[in-house]
Amino acid sequence: MNKQTLLIIGFVLMVLAQWAIPGQMILNSENVIAKGKEWRFRTAPADPNDPFRGKYITLRFEDNKAFNMDENLKRGDDIYVTLGEDFAGFAVPNEVYSYPPSGADYVKAKVLYGSPKPGEELFIEYPFNRFYMDEEKAYPAELAYRESSRDPNSTAWAVVRIKDGNPILLDVLIDGIPIAEVVEEQEIELE
Amino acid sequence: MSIQKDIKELLGAGVITDEVAERLETYYEGKKGSSSNRLLVIFGVLGAILVGLGIILILASNWDDFPKSAKTFFAFLPLVIGQGLGAYALLKKRDSPAWTESSSAFLFFAIGASISLISQIYNIEGDLGFFLMTWSLLALPIIYLLRSSIASLLYIGWVTWFGVVVGYDHSDASLIMYWLMFMAVIPHVVYLFRQKPESNFLSFHNWMLPGSVAIMLGTFADGNEYMLVLAYFALFSLFYGLGELKAFSRRHPATNGPRIIGLGGMISMLMAFSFDEIWKEMSRGDFDFVDRFLGAEFPIALILVGGSLTLLFLGPKEGQKRVIRPFGWTLLAFIPIFVIGQFTVFATLLINVLILVMGILTIREGTQKEHLGILNFGLLIITTLVICRFFDTELPFLVRGLLFVAVGVGFFVANYLILKKRKKDE
Question: What is the pTM of this model?
Fold first, then answer.
């Protein structure tokens, strides 16, 4: 096998690897979207800027505390949070484990802060806290959210599909309307 | 081109024959060809980088209007284009640096763009450290398949960034990966040393590699940061020793990254440690002295000291005699001062004496070699020391003023004497 052939084989392998990583991300995400259970998480956002991934809204969640059922956990540790639903159909976290619990719906997350002992509450950092938007819409969207969070009659929430603990964030809604549409309606009203 | 005028002038003055003139012209025509090739490479790479970044920015706008399938198509498009250009360069243009370097630069950025865009489409958060590590590892083969130094330089930059995120910020990725990924680029650097020893790309590598290691050494901090002081000084001394080896020192001084980083690092540390604040902190004595040797920092410091001292004895020779320049010895003087500094602030005075001695030895070296650059560098060291002491001693203004006058006069006299000696020799 001569050098040229080796180089071509090497190049083909490199190309396959470069396709495989984003390809796997797509397959995993589509699998969760197709077969995962849908949950609604009540939100309250802010708006920073990631240079690599365009503009996004950072989502904070109202229901982000749960009881630690396991050994001592510290900030940044991986955790598995069991989920239930409240009377209005929104997701509420119940208990926190350091391993995937069987027989319950759960989502993989991280410890936000606190170094609680078993039986104490700790704060959860959900992995679906970024919603990417068209850069021109991200800031007005944030303003729409702030108004919504000030108004006690308005509710905003994130729609998330979860399968085997892996979540995919599908959309963010204000009072049932996708936030991108809310921003478009506001722009039309201004004109 | 001015060389053409010179050739005509020499021919007219009868200094060279027609045959020699023709050979000179042919030679310089060939060189001109290679320098315009170099420009093509530079502009080709710049253009490729700008096009790559531009594509990312253009696709990011009006994103919401595309359906998911279109977004996914656009996410892969830069990658496909980059791979296509790379394949063409590999098969048809392997000997053209303009093609190999430009396509490598474009493909490098296309890899990151595809992963970023897919993350954006599916709102996947991800860990920055893992993202940078994945990107770098996917780009690593480009260096060897296309023999690309641009890809290599970008790779070193990205790996260093990854190391900083994992070592100084937070990430789930492992710091060991930085060192493994760093080692992965060394074969390419060895290739450049052997096959292209005069290339500018090698010069850039000579700066980036020691720079990356210097940035990453701090990640070994494990609660005993003061031991890292010794580790850093030993690292800079090691770089200096590397820079004195023929492989580096025979090239243009500005390309000798290890020597300049090593020298600059040692002098900066010495100047910083000529103030007594840090020694007061180190010798406070309110913690267990033995603890300082228990963390990761001490073995690292030992290894670096060992490496530096080994280079001291492997350094350049003149005939049978080992040639060691003044700063080659500095680490040996710093170690006992550092040990003393664990117990008493007296180390401050010793550091000041060390700097003064290094300055005087450098001046002496400059005088012996009749090298104005080295001589003035030695004078600059002493001047900087004097300026530092200006700010923190209780000396009366008269004394400080006289010190400055003395150093200033020293500058003039030393330079004048060397220039006079040169004129006399001519």
Answer: 0.82
